[in-house]
Amino acid sequence: MTLLGLLHLVWTQAGLNLWHPAWRDSRKPLTVASRIRSAASRIRTSKLQLDEILVTASFRKGGLKEKGEAAISRAKDGSLRLVCIAPLQQYKAKWTGKSVPMESALALPMVTMSDAVWNQTSRRFAREIAAWEAGASIVAVGQFAMVGTPERSRWEWQEVALMRVTERGIPVDSSYEDTMESKLASEDRAFEKPLRFDADEAEVLPDFILLDTDPETVIEVFGMNTPEYATRRDAKLAYYQANQSKVALWIWDAHTDPHARRINPLPSARQQARDETSN
């Protein structure tokens, strides 16, 4: 599993790819960190549970910080690689490598980044870095370890992956998806953002799924018009056409309507879901 695939697994196990109107106060940063750690306790890596080698955002005191410090103590001999999951700080200046600007990861020691790891990160996640510079929220997952000799040892990032999220912590792949997620939340809809893990890009994966309609409604946001993208879009539409008895389909063609001025109304929520929202 790739590091980004692991982040997708943790996010899904923690239920952070789901949203319901009743959860308005459930996505505070340290509440999210607690849910990440709880999910990590159910994931095994080699002979360890993920939470045993995990550092998250934390308060200055308390269990989240103490568990992160315990993981760091366990790995000081260089025998383990640790994982840190935390949001990036709000953008203030260009990120040029050397370190990862994690927010509130208070147990994290000084961890350096080599030019090779930075070049790989900045190339692979150029879109996420550009979004961060434009004000978007980004979650980072990094693997780090103690390297060097006992006399001259240091903590060093081995790999870093980035994931864009909304203010509710829902992962999104583009500004169009961000707009769509905001629309769903503003209209008090219950929805899911399916995550790709390490599946091939050719695999059909909805952008969002409305959970409050019967049947559930697939939300697709089509934002480009390249030949490759058109091929993938056609494959998706063919798949949904073949499975239309199981799901409904709603489309926003953002390429031709980038400001959502001609966007169709969302399908109505079933009565039970509306009652749950009003209560």
Features:
alpha/beta, five-stranded mixed sheet, 279 residues, Trna Endonuclease, Chain: A, domain 1, single chain
What's the domain count?
2
- Please list the strands of the largest sheet in the order they lie side by side: 1-9-10-11-12
Low-confidence stretches: none
SS class: alpha/beta
Total helical segments: 8
Strand content: 15-25%
Mean pLDDT: 92
Shape: globular
Strand element count: 12
Give the radius of gyration: 20 Å
Q: Note the run of SSEs as H and E.
A: HEHEEEHEEHHEEHEEEHEH
Span of the ends, CA to CA:
41 Å
Helix percentage: 25-40%
What's the arrangement of secondary structure elements?
Layout: H1 3-13, E1 18-19, H2 29-40, E2 44-45, E3 48-49, E4 54-56, H3 63-74, E5 82-87, E6 111-112, H4 115-124, H5 126-133, E7 137-148, E8 153-165, H6 175-186, E9 191-192, E10 208-210, E11 217-222, H7 227-242, E12 248-253, H8 271-278
Parallel strand pairs: 4-5, 6-8, 11-12
Antiparallel strand pairs: 1-9, 2-3, 5-7, 7-8, 9-10, 10-11
